[in-house]
Specification:
The complex is a heterodimer of chains A (about 170) and B (about 130). Chain A has about 170 residues and is mainly α. Chain A is about 70% helix and about 5% strand. Chain B has a three-stranded antiparallel beta sheet with strand order 1-3-2. Classes of the chains: A mainly alpha (about 170), B mainly alpha (about 130).
């Protein structure tokens, strides 16, 4: 675990850079109303904030890429969370993909949401709904596809309840 | 004991005046989306309905439709099956089709009729009094 700490340190630098940049813009704007000195101060502070933010951004990108390569996004307790319940792992065909790849493509995100939805269903119905959703997904693209997948994921538990034995012994 | 339980639905079907041979269906909670799905399917009760088309026709998100179709199927109102045909020839994934069962169509008509009777006609809107505005 201690080997991964520097990666999160980069994250701290990034967030610090973003905060400093935002604050500097506000401070610069307020002081700038006062006169020329204020303008100079605002420009200098904004420049420093922007530089810190840029460095932080590069650091974040390198951190994410490095973490992706080293597998830092794998859940720490995978034995307790089969199927990647921690939200940081997508299992498909025995391969592992990280958060970076999942979040940077629509298909990756939709794959993840649908797999999580399928995992919610009873085992007997998984293959059937996986195929049905694979078909329905062809009708959408872009943000509509993401929205549809989110909706399917959100209602998967209701679908599972409807499929399960909970409703069976009602007509007596 | 188990045998007796299996015979119960047939007896209750006859007592409810359904045609002989129709299996009993379990009651389903009729929500607005459920009613919309049933209404859409009753337009052509003998036809096979595509799940995605049902979602489009009822204007409900397909995520809302899946639990309803699953509930109706579990209760015996619907039967579902894969469409015939090879996906390679069709050049698309095969579709899951839904069809009302005989008892399901009967129950759906009853449920929608009851819902319509309960809702009834809207009372006339109150006329604004002249000069009060």
């Amino acid at each position: 675990m201690s080997r991964r700490r520097p990666t999160w340190l980069f994250g701290g630098v990034v967030s610090g850079g973003v905060v400093v940049s935002g604050v500097s813009v506000v401070v610069g704007g307020v002081v700038g109303v006062g006169g020329g000195v204020g303008v100079v101060v605002s420009v200098v502070v904004s420049g420093v904030g922007g530089a810190v933010s840029a460095v932080g951004g590069v650091g974040l990108w390198r951190t994410l890429v490095r973490a992706q390569r080293t597998g830092a996004f794998r859940p720490t307790r995978s034995s307790e969370r089969p199927g990647g319940v921690g939200g940081l792992r997508v299992c498909r065909g025995g391969t592992r993909r990280g958060l970076l790849r999942t979040c940077t493509s629509v298909d990756g995100l939709v794959d993840y949401l649908l797999e999580r939805a399928v995992d919610t269903l009873p085992a007997a119905a998984r293959a059937r709904f996986a195929e049905e959703w694979l078909d329905h997904r062809q009708h959408f693209s872009g943000w509509r596809l993401v929205w549809w997948a989110l909706w399917v994921r959100a209602t998967a538990l209701r679908t599972a309840t409807a499929l399960g034995p909970a409703q069976l012994p009602r007509d007596r | 004991m188990r045998k007796r339980r299996r015979e119960e639905p047939a007896r209750s079907a006859e007592s409810q005046g359904r045609p002989a041979g129709q299996l009993a269906v379990r009651p389903v909670r009729i929500t607005l989306p459920t009613a919309a799905v049933l209404r859409q399917m009753l337009e052509n009760p003998a036809a096979d309905h595509y799940g995605f088309a049902l979602a489009e026709a009822t204007s409900f998100p397909s995520g809302t439709i899946y639990p309803i179709l699953a509930r109706l199927e579990t209760a015996g109102w619907l039967a579902s099956f894969w469409e015939h045909g090879d996906p390679v020839e069709l050049e698309r994934p095969r579709r899951r089709m839904y069809r009302l069962t005989g008892a399901g169509a009967h129950a759906a008509r009853e449920a929608l009729t009851t819902t319509q009777r309960l809702l009834g006609a809207l009372p006339p809107a109150a006329q604004p009094q002249a000069g009060t505005a």
